[in-house]
Specification:
Layout (H helix, E strand, L loop, with lengths): L12 E7 L8 E4 L1 E2 L2 E2 L2 E6 L5 H11 L23 E7 L5 E11 L5 E12 L8 E4 L20 H4 L8 H15 L5 H12 L4 E9 L2 E8 L2 E4 L5 H20 L11 E5 L8 H14 L3 E6 L3 H6 L4 E8 L2 E6 L9 H5 L12 H15 L5 H15 L7 H22 L1
Helix pairs in contact: 9-10
Length: about 425
């Protein structure tokens, strides 16, 4: 009787541990799962310098499958400035046995001698016999040069480590895919699939995408409210989003060549500053769109926008917080489902004291101070009257329309009050 091969479960990340890695000191573990199920969306928040990018880099390095991937680190890429030995641990949802590997770091001393630093120990499942579809995108999502439609590096998270690393040239990829369809008479139309999802996410600004004659060749053009424009003349936010999404589509096609819809296959994707250069209306619907377009991808992203958090609904939120000489990692500190943007901004997730401007807050504070006094001087009476007029123009409701309605109701109430006194 032949024994069946044990099936490998889909590879998702269960949890991550960091110790003495950059701003992270004592060992900390944070979870990308709940009740033995992976979160398909994890959003990492925190001030600048709290290690959001370091978390993504640590995951990418730990799960890289080529020894030479460590060369993308500089002298201070991971280890702390002291002599502590660094540790990265990643546990997956899989039946793959664990293994350990080390990455050694060196630096130049003042005498310009090469000095060994304590290594970084990495504890991860043994992936030598398996491919893990993990792709990482840094905040500099640079469009590849013309003519580049292949794979830039075997390290699929290079742009996380190198801001000069190029992703695929999205326009050339679309042209090549269209050419392959015509030449091979393929039933599956990659171009139409990508065009459909791009039009869905960019619907407020772009109504159509076409491949048109351009000089002696062809180009990809986008129909905006101002007319047709090519890829190079799109806004930075649109170019960045289109570039990394098509780069991801390319990788998924490589990993799943026989799939009818590679975008629906399993993977882990890391994106640094996913909200970068995007208008607020696009930020608000981005998470829902990506969740629907890539339903089996585990996204782990960093963000600065409350709109990304609001769009995440019940997904995993991690906050990085400075604590002395190291950073603390807090898992799901608060549930913000159905919250307004101003409420999210003033919660522990972002830590703002108020959603109003500093000037308005100062005047509100002064008004409360005067109201608390038993007797006002003549100058204070005038100041109070000015503050009262100022407050009349400060919105109190969630939006200006509701605020205007509230003022009309208040005015009507004052008129009725006066009529009753007659």
């Amino acid at each position: 009787m032949m024994h069946e091969k044990k099936k490998i479960k889909p590879i998702y990340i269960r949890d991550v541990s960091l110790e003495h890695i950059k701003c992270f000191g004592p060992k900390q573990q944070f979870f990308l799962s709940k009740d033995d199920k992976p979160y398909m969306w994890t959003i990492i928040l925190g001030d600048n310098g709290t290690g959001k990018s370091t978390v993504l880099k640590s995951i990418a390095l730990a799960l890289s499958q080529h020894e030479e991937d460590g060369k993308f680190m500089d002298d201070s890429a991971f280890s702390r400035s002291d002599d502590s030995e660094g540790f990265i641990g990643v546990n997956l949802f899989s039946n793959i046995e664990n293994t350990s590997k080390q990455i050694n770091e060196y630096y130049l001393s003042e005498e310009e001698e090469l000095v060994f630093k304590p290594s970084i120990k990495i504890d991860v499942p043994n992936l030598k016999k398996y491919k893990i579809p993990l792709f990482g995108y840094g905040s500099y999502r640079k469009l590849g040069s013309k003519g580049f439609t292949g794979v830039a590096s075997s390290f699929q998270s290079l742009s996380l480590f190198d801001e000069n690393a190029s992703l695929i040239n999205a326009e050339d990829w679309l042209l090549r895919a269209d050419y392959e369809k015509v030449k091979s008479n393929l039933v599956t139309d990659k171009v139409e699939r990508i065009k459909t999802i791009l039009l869905k996410i960019l619907q407020e600004e772009i109504s159509d995408i076409e491949i048109k004659k351009k000089g002696h060749g062809f180009g990809v053009y986008f129909k905006t409210r101002y007319g047709w424009v090519n890829m190079e003349n799109l806004s930075t936010g649109y170019k960045s989003l289109i570039t990394w999404m098509i780069d991801l589509a390319n990788w998924l096609t490589i990993y799943y060549p026989k799939s009818k819809n590679p975008l629906a296959e399993q993977a882990v994707v890391l994106v640094d500053e996913i909200d970068l250069h995007l208008h607020v209306s696009l930020q608000k619907r981005l998470v829902k769109f990506l969740r629907e377009t890539f339903p089996n991808i585990q996204f782990i992203v960093t963000a600065h926008s409350p709109l990304i958090v609001q769009g995440s609904e019940e997904e995993n939120i991690i906050v990085l917080e400075k604590n002395g000489d190291h950073v603390l990692i807090k898992d799901n500190p608060i549930n913000v489902k159905n919250w307004r943007i101003d409420q999210i901004l003033t919660s522990d997730l972002f830590g703002l004291e108020s959603a109003r401007s500093n000037e308005t807050e100062a005047k509100l504070k002064r008004r409360y101070e005067l109201m608390a006094k038993g007797h006002l001087e003549e100058s204070e009476e005038k100041e109070m009257e000015g503050l009262k007029q100022f407050m009349h123009n400060v919105p109190a409701m969630e939006n200006t329309k509701l605020d205007e309605a509230s003022k009309i109701i208040q005015s009507a109430a004052e008129v009725l009050k006066k009529l009753k006194k007659r």
